Amino acid sequence: MSYMCGTGTHGSTQDIMTEYQKTGHTLPAEVVASLESSGEDRNLYIAALRRAGWTLASISDAAGVTRERIRQITQATPEGAESALPATLPVPTPPVKVARVRKEYVEPDPGKLARLLELQPLAQQNRHNSEEFREAAEDYTKLVWEVHNGDGVTLYRLAKRLGVSHGALRFRLARYGYKEPVSGVSKVYTRIMPEHRVPATL
Length: 202
Known about the structure:
- The protein is mainly alpha-helical.
- It has eight helices and three strands, in the order ββααααβαααα.
- The protein folds into two domains: 8-98, no CATH class; 110-196, no CATH class.
């Protein structure tokens, strides 16, 4: 049986960060067997396992004594003394788990964001059956889709930067045919009629 140790392993696209699992340890069967047959090296072996990172509970369960007794044995064993343990007594490192890595979100391109903020007040004044501000509304919606779908910016983040709700952006994208509505029942998300669109936009 092999045991992982260290702070990370390399994946195909990015490092997968790991950290020692701090709870729920169970000593491997071969370690439990070695502990039972450790004889006069028993206390030294217990201290070595504890200093390797195994929990008090995991060692006490295997040794048949209390966690407090494991603590006392470890405290009474001089630092470094475990180096004298026979090679027949394995001291593996505790299991590791994948650490939660904070997700990094894509920010809108500053130039595109500036253009969106410039178009936004005009686009918001457009009504689907009116020609006024129609081109600005088309350009604004098309750029919203480009930033979201092409550049990978979430609607939540883009909406925050634009000072609107993500629902408003989703609504706009659905109305202009860039995104399917969540429900096909609502008439609110009915697409704008072709005659009320700027030709060759999509």
